[in-house]
Structures are given as structure tokens and as C-alpha cells.
TrEMBL record:
GO terms for cellular component: plasma membrane. SUPFAM superfamilies: P-loop containing nucleoside triphosphate hydrolases. PROSITE patterns: ABC_TRANSPORTER_1 (PS00211), ABC_TRANSPORTER_2 (PS50893). Keywords: ATP-binding, Nucleotide-binding, Transport. It holds the Pfam family ABC_tran. It comes from the Bacteria. The keyword Nucleotide-binding applies. One of its GO terms (molecular function) is transmembrane transporter activity. Residues 5-220 form the ABC transporter domain. Transmembrane segments: none annotated. This is AttE component of AttEFGH ABC transport system.
């Protein structure tokens, strides 16, 4: 299968009071086009850090991250911004919706930036995610679960090749989490995207095609 994402020997540390604190110490993983992968690990093990590096939100100290034909670590700020706009979609733990835009405009936001709006697909996403009655509401008028579904719709509306999700159903109860996850997996598969999903939940991890575990700064099967 074609590898979409190849992470090799990635190191990343953060400055602490006593010098550099290593977080990733030679992390490697592969993700094929159209596959889903769970990334688990204890709190503080570096899961979000690795997701940020893959999404071009931050740079590793060393190592290689290849996405499609692009070496992400060699991109300058503009290149990384383009990568985030065109190829990668991120569903954050905190949703990051734009407070001044209603749900419909939030859903369209990423696709609009990319210059690839598809209103029919946006409507399908809104309807499948149960958001149709809420499209004119602003984020502050939406429940946590509704905001989460808007964030998922916004990401998928832009049809990214790679979806990075950080605890995408972390704020939902178990039944809603399972329903939203089902939908997200279904919609990800419909677009042919790959999904790398950070999770603490055994149930969520078990739904992915494969899973890896981050321990001691490295990725173990
Ligand atoms: N920008 C930063 N500056 C300094 N330290 C950071 C920064 N980002 C992350 N860290 C540190 O790196 C370590 C790993 O953090 P990270 O958020 O990647 O862990 P995680 O596995 O995602 O945790 P959780 O499951 O709790 O979300 C933590 O010790 C954290 O304090």
C-alpha cells in the first residue's frame, strides 16, 4: 500500500529550567493512504507534540517527516502554512472554532481557505453529523458535543489527505463518543483520507485499522 506518511527517528525537546527536556527520542511510524491509526500513550508521553510536528505546526529537532512527496521538516513557514491549508486537517481537543462565525461558516472555513468549497458536501456533512438544525448558531450557542461535530465537519469539508485528530471525542459521553466516532470513520473512509487519532480510550483505539503506543519518546507497536 502507498505510504502517505512516514515519520523517521524524530527527536523533539523543550527548554526547561535545567536545559532541554527530551519528549520524542527517535519516534517513527508509517501510515498508508486510506488507513486509520490510533496513537496511544500516557499523559505527557508526547502524543500531541508528535501530531503538531506531523501537521507542520511545529518543527522537530531532528528526523524526517514525509507526507506524500513532501519532506515536512524542510518547509519554511509559508510551506508549512500551505501544507496545513491543502493537505492536512486537524481536529483539536479544544475545537478551535471561530467565535464570530456561525456553524455553517465554520464548517466552510477550511475549504474556503483552500479555495475548494463544495456546498453539497458541506450540507451532507452537516446533515450526517446532526448539525442541520444548528447551522445558524454561533459556537457559544452550541453544546460541547455540537461544537465537536462542527470541528469534525470543518476538517472533512476541505477533504484533506491526512486527518490528525487529538482526542476527537474526548468531551463526549461514551454513547455519543461511539456514534460520533462511527460517523467520523465513515466519512474519513468516504473521502479516502488517512486518519491518525490520538486517544486515551481503548474503545476508540480498537476501532482503528492499527494502533501504536508512544513510550519513552519512541513508538512501539
Ligand atoms: N510548547 C511546549 N513547551 C514546553 N513544553 C512542552 C510544550 N509542548 C509540550 N511540552 C511538554 O512535552 C511533554 C509532552 O506533552 P504532550 O502534550 O505532547 O503530551 P501528550 O502525550 O499529548 O499528553 P496528554 O495525553 O496529557 O494530552 C509534556 O511534558 C509537556 O509539558
Amino acid at each position: 500500500m502507498t505510504p502517505l506518511l512516514t515519520v523517521r527517528d524524530v527527536h523533539k525537546g523543550f527548554a526547561g529550567p535545567d536545559g532541554l527536556v527530551p519528549v520524542l527520542r527517535g519516534a517513527s511510524l508509517d501510515l498508508a493512504q486510506g488507513r486509520t491509526l490510533a496513537l496511544t500513550g500516557e499523559s505527557g508521553s508526547g502524543k500531541s507534540t508528535l501530531l503538531h510536528l506531523i501537521g507542520g505546526l511545529d518543527r522537530p529537532d531532528s528526523g524526517s517527516i514525509r507526507l506524500g512527496g513532501t519532506e515536512v521538516t524542510r518547509l519554511d513557514d509559508r510551506g508549512r502554512a500551505r501544507l496545513r491549508r491543502d493537505a492536512v486537517g486537524v481536529v483539536f481537543q479544544q475545537f478551535n472554532l471561530i467565535p464570530s462565525l456561525d456553524a455553517a461558516a465554520n464548517i466552510a472555513f477550511q475549504a474556503r481557505l483552500k479555495g475548494a468549497r463544495d456546498p453539497a458536501w458541506e450540507n451532507e456533512l452537516a446533515s450526517r453529523l446532526g448539525l442541520a438544525p444548528h447551522l445558524r448558531k454561533f459556537p457559544e450557542e452550541l453544546s460541547g458535543g455540537q461544537q465537536q461535530r462542527v470541528a469534525i465537519a470543518r476538517t472533512l469539508a476541505a477533504r484533506p489527505r491526512l486527518v490528525l485528530a487529538d482526542e476527537p471525542t474526548g468531551n463526549l459521553d461514551e454513547a455519543s463518543s461511539s456514534a460520533v466516532l462511527d460517523l467520523m470513520l465513515d466519512l474519513v473512509r468516504q473521502t479516502g483520507a488517512s486518519l491518525l487519532c490520538v486517544t486515551h480510550s481503548e474503545q476508540v483505539a480498537a476501532r482503528m485499522d492499527a494502533r501504536v503506543h508512544l513510550r519513552g519518546g519512541q513508538v512501539a507497536p
